[in-house]
């Protein structure tokens, strides 16, 4: 797929700007705080309807404006689509594809696919488990937009169930038996939790099972085959196979086992919102023992695996967004990345200095200077 045009109005520090992409690689160059990451964020929103930097639309809208807009012209293998997101300070969004209003987020997701790779991604290895869950969820949403809907429903159930558990806690702590009505309503929530949690967990298991060998292969290539990467799903509820009935059963058993803990804490402690993903290099957890270089190699391998997996599932190469990462990779790893993406993936790259990276990246790239939310086409000779 190819992002042909991007139009931003009152988005972050962009007043009104349109850009036409004219090469497989576009380099956005500019000083700090000029709007490079903001532009990638707009593309991320088109792909996932989420930003990894904020969950509040009021931060996305230009300061002082009531609403903003992101518009894109996307060429896919067999179709062209105009995508539009209207953002409001209040948080209400309007989504349109080819001028047709999308009733649900689900109808918009899946049009544009993108893999983002930013310097923050080392958190994927070092950060708390929710970084890894979020990463996995973003990937799964792109593979199957319905997943976003399932996950949102699951999260809603956890929230409701937590509220109920909190109100039960007091009763339970004073030693009173739970009233019949409350017990029955907890059981109802249990069933919904199990139902939707099972759908989340099975999708995560299947997704990771497909990703793991690709990540291992890429990792082997980048590290010169000296190390072996193992990516494992470590679900909170453990089961064997892929039979939903088996997952249900395991889930219910675990809930029964943890009932007093849940009542004591007033919170749901069983379910995929407590899942973890393990990254192990040669039997050593990357999180605690990996050197910075090893951790970078790992993240790079994961990102390349994501690209290949999305390409296989969608049938078209997704976009690649590289935010500030090239300068952090040594020339060897840059070369690996370059070879891996060839010219197949449209790539948007941000950097503060063009000379930070390999000549080969620049040779065929379109270069856009970013200055205070304005874009200007440049030639390499003008900048060096
Ligand atoms: N809602 C908004 N309205 C106006 N300006 C905003 C808004 N949100 C962010 N900004 C501005 O955008 C700028 C940050 O842009 P961005 O994160 O894209 O920088 P960058 O070019 O990627 O810089 P760096 O090289 O440091 O990563 C800041 O100056 C910030 O004040
Ligand atoms: Mg930035």
From TrEMBL:
SUPFAM superfamilies per record: P-loop containing nucleoside triphosphate hydrolases
CDD domains, per database record: ABC_RecF
Compartments, record wording: Cytoplasm
Residues covered by the RecF/RecN/SMC N-terminal domain: 2-357
Record has DNA repair as a keyword: yes
Primary location class: cytoplasm
Listed InterPro entries: DNA-binding_RecF, DNA-binding_RecF_CS, P-loop_NTPase, RecF/RecN/SMC_N, RecF_2
Keyword Cytoplasm on entry: yes
Residues annotated for ATP binding in this entry: 30-37
Keyword set, alphabetical order: ATP-binding, Cytoplasm, DNA damage, DNA repair, DNA replication, DNA-binding, Nucleotide-binding, SOS response
Coiled-coil intervals, chain numbering: none
Family assignment from sequence similarity: Belongs to the RecF family.
Cited function: The RecF protein is involved in DNA metabolism; it is required for DNA replication and normal SOS inducibility. RecF binds preferentially to single-stranded, linear DNA. It also seems to bind ATP.
Protein name: DNA replication and repair protein RecF
């Amino acid at each position: 797929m190819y992002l042909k045009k991007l139009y931003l109005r009152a988005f972050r520090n962009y007043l009104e700007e349109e850009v036409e992409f004219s090469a497989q690689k576009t380099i956005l160059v500019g000083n700090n705080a000029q709007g490079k990451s903001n532009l990638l964020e707009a593309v991320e929103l088109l792909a996932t309807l989420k930003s990894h930097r904020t969950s509040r639309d009021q931060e996305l809208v230009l300061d002082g404006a009531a609403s903003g807009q992101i518009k894109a012209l996307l060429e896919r293998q067999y179709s062209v689509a105009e995508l539009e997101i209207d953002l409001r300070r209040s948080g209400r969004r309007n989504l349109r594809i080819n001028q047709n209003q999308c009733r649900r987020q689900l109808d918009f997701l899946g049009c544009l696919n993108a893999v983002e790779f930013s310097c923050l991604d080392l958190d994927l290895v070092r950060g708390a488990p929710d970084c890894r869950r979020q990463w996995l969820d973003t990937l799964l949403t792109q593979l199957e937009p319905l997943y976003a809907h399932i996950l949102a429903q699951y999260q809603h159930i956890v929230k409701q169930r937590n509220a109920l558990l909190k109100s039960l806690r007091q009763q339970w702590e004073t030693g009173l038996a739970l009233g019949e009505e409350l017990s029955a309503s907890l059981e109802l929530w249990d069933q919904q939790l199990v139902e939707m949690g099972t759908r989340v967990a099975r999708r995560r298991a299947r997704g990771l099972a497909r990703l793991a060998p690709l990540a291992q292969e890429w990792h082997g290539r980048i590290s010169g085959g000296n190390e072996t990467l193992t990516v494992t799903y470590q679900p909170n509820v453990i089961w064997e196979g892929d039979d939903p009935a088996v997952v249900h059963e395991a889930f219910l058993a675990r809930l029964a086992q943890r009932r007093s803990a849940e009542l004591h804490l007033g919170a749901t402690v069983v379910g995929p919102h407590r899942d973890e993903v393990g990254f192990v290099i040669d039997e050593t957890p990357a999180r605690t023992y990996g050197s910075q270089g090893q951790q970078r190699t790992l993240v790079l391998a994961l990102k390349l695996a994501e690209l290949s997996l999305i390409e296989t599932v969608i049938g078209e190469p997704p976009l690649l967004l590289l935010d500030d990462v090239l300068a952090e990779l040594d020339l060897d790893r840059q070369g690996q990345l370059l070879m891996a993406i060839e010219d197949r993936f449209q790539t948007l790259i941000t950097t503060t200095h063009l000379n930070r990276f390999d000549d080969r990246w620049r040779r065929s790239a379109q270069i856009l200077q970013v200055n205070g939310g304005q874009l200007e086409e440049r030639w390499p000779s003008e900048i060096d």
